[in-house]
Amino acid sequence: MSYIDDLEQRIAKIEEGGSEKYHQKNEAKGKLFVRKRLELMFDNGMDIEDAFFANCIDGSLPSDGVVTGIGKVNGQDVAVMANDSTVKAGSWGKRTVEKILRILETAEKLEIPMIYLVDSAGARITDQIEMFPGRRGAGRIFHNQIKLSGRVPQVCLLFGPSAAGGAYIPAFCDIVIMVEGNASMYLGSPRMAEKVIGEKVSLEEMGGAKMHASVSGVGDVLVKTEEAAIDYTRNYLNYFPASFREKPKTIQAKEAKSFEKSITDLIPENDNAPFNMHDLIQQIIDEDSFCEVKKKFAKELITGLARIDGRPVGIIANQPKMKGGVLFPDSADKAAKFIQLCDAFNIPLLFLADIPGFMIGTKVEQAGIIRHGAKMLAAMSEATVPKISVVVRKAYGAGLYAMAGPAFEPDCCIALPTAKIAVMGPEAAVNAVYANKIAELSEDERAAFIKEKQEEYKENIDIYRLASELVIDAVVNPDKLREELSRRFTIYEAKHVTFTERKHGVYPV
Amino acid sequence: MEEVKATMAGNVWKIVVKEGEQVEEDQDIVILESMKMEIPIAAEEDGTVKELKVTEGDFVNEGDVIAIIES
User: Fold this and answer.
1) A357–B7 CB contact, under 8 Å
2) Which of A324, A361, A428 sits opposite B39 (nearest CB)?
3) For the CA atoms of chain A, what is the radius of gyration?
């Protein structure tokens, strides 16, 4: 046999991955082979692969259970690490870890996005001395990830388990996409939970994709299939530059989707009635351009990437249809991360405020709503990308502040003619100010008195009064909002500011 | 069987279905009043309203069961 044949035979063998039995097992679960996943992810497959021969002397651990390399996504070079769950369940040995470290270091040097295709049982305990505690041990993966954060986009697609320490890979990514039924994240497995703390619980309940996407918020996007996860990723990366040094690309503009109801028709006259903020968003963005993040988590706040006249924007919008659009600890947390994500990669921010305020009551105080709210305010305040706030119907109390109110240096604060800005709404304010007086009045007098005082209050906080006092920068016809935003974002593109000089703030987390 | 739970603390302002009524996913079961806002609480699946656990004017905390829907 010539050495060429020998080389080709070795390559062919490694490319097959683990034994047939594990391929079949994966197929039964709707899981694709790692090389198939990569083929779907990249425009034309992987361009280069490193340490393909890792652990080849062993013979039973092709590529040591992880594929690393670089390929193109939407024409942009992107680095990847992808676990091969047909090789010892995708577990990590010494060379697996070293390969992951090296591709992370390559992404850092080249300043290109990093994608993680995770499907791994975790560390090989038999190899622990070589891969766990040392300088080039698994901990270094997270150290490198943390260093990469905000330099280049980091996306995690979770196709299988991400167990114990491995669960920190998704945690340090900008976004985690989970396949329902197969993806899971947990520090201790259900078996371990039963042994160590005596809890009996199913994997789905404790660490399943649906739970993480809707309850814990560790997952961001829930999809049904691996193909859908890959499609989401390819679309998502379109909104991002390769690194923090660049701006995201503007593409061909599209008209907004046309609707029977205009924005004016959408907004209910009754201040307290719910409406669907998604309907308003659709009217100001390019058709089919909304890429929602954390759709199933803390639904009272909508976060997503979109385009206005081809230009990427990050939208943070209160959703009056869910929990009245009130901010809760989870929604404040969701906003903080999304704002940081956009600011890191030069994506302008659009805040659509329709907010009665932050939630009050024992439950949320015990959950630390003050520090979670502070975290959102800090992230919003520090964001130096072009920042526009639009008060749709109301912005009461700290809700005005959290949604990039005038004090937080938005490039402009726009009000629709329906907007009200105040410490609190008319009902609450009249009750607070005239509580004693109202109690003294007879039943017949009471309603008339309250109504009169509420009218007075409404006049006092009239939006034109606030415009007259320069609190807001513009009052805009709702049906011309899209054009207004497009003009402003185009002009504000020239913005170049530094927030302040220091090592870093002490974050309220 | 689905337990329809309050998504946030508030008062039960209006009950918009009756026991025994057929409901669809996303159909409102009750409307709470909280933070001066109307907060609709909807069914998460199709079914029949087996039991209403609240009456108008009740205070409910986040997570309290409002109704039971049998699919």
Assistant:
1) no
2) A324
3) 26
Alpha-carbon distance A327 to A333, whole Å?
A: 10
Listed residue (A247, A260, A250) closest to A286, CA to CA:
A250
Q: Are B37 and A326 within 8 A, CB to CB?
A: yes
Q: How far is B20 from chain A (nearest CA, A)?
A: 26
Looking at the structure, tell me whether residues A18 and A104 fall in a common domain.
yes
Rounded to 5 degrees, what are φ and ψ at A57? -65, -35
What is the residue range of A430's domain?
424-462
Q: Domain count of chain A?
A: 3
Q: What is the CATH number of domain B2-70?
A: 2.40.50.100
Domain ranges of chain B: 2-70
Alpha carbon distance B39, B14 (integer Å): 10
CB contact under 8 A, B62 and A363: yes
- Chain A (133-192) residues lying within 8 Å, Cβ to Cβ, of chain B: none
Do A212 and A291 reside in the same domain of the chain?
no
Most A-contacting residue of B16, B37, B61 (CB-CB within 10 A), to test interface: B37
Residue A414 lies in a domain: yes
Does the beta carbon of B68 lie under 8 angstroms from any beta carbon of chain A?
Answer: no
Q: What is the mean pLDDT of chain A?
A: 96
Q: What residues does A157 pair with on adjacent strands?
A: A117, A177
* Interchain CB distance below 8 Å, B62 and A322: no
Residue A429 and residue A412 share a domain: no
Answer whether A375's CB lies under 8 Å from A368's CB: no
Q: Is residue A112 part of a domain?
A: yes
Say if B8 is an interface residue toward chain A (CB within 8 Å). Answer: yes
Asked if residue A93 and residue A28 are part of one domain, the reply reads: yes
Residue A95 lies in a domain: yes
Q: Mean pLDDT of successive 10-residue segments in chain B (71 residues)?
A: 93 96 94 94 94 96 95 86
Distance separating alpha carbons of residues A55 and A62, to the nearest angstrom: 7
Residues A299-330 pLDDT 10s: 999 999 999 999 999 999 999 999 999 999 99
Same domain flag for A49 and A74: yes
Task: Check pLDDT > 90 for residue A163.
Answer: no
> Do A89 and A168 have their domain in common?
yes
Is B9 touching A (CB cutoff 8 A)? yes
Optimal mutation site among B30, B36, B38, interface A, most CBs of chain A within 10 A: B36
Is A399 within 8 Å of chain B by CB?
no
Q: Is the ipTM of this complex over 0.95?
A: no
- Asked if B34's CB is within 8 angstroms of A324's CB, the reply is yes
A387 and A482 assigned to the same domain: yes
Q: Is residue A91 part of a domain?
A: yes
The pairing of strands A301-308 and A311-318 is: antiparallel
**Category of A288 on φ-ψ map: left (φ > 0), alpha (ψ -120 to 50) or beta:** left
Q: Do A291 and A175 sit in the same domain of this protein?
A: no
Q: Do A272 and B37 touch (CB under 8 A)?
A: yes
Sequence-distant (≥ 6) Cβ neighbours of residue A434 within 8 angstroms:
A449, A450, A453
- CB-based contact, A363 to chain B, within 8 Å: yes
Q: How large is the angle between the packed helices A443-460 and A426-433, nearest 10 degrees?
A: 120
Whether the CB of B18 is below 8 Å from some CB of chain A: the reply is no
Q: Any idea what the CATH number is for the domain that residue A45 is in?
A: 3.90.226.10
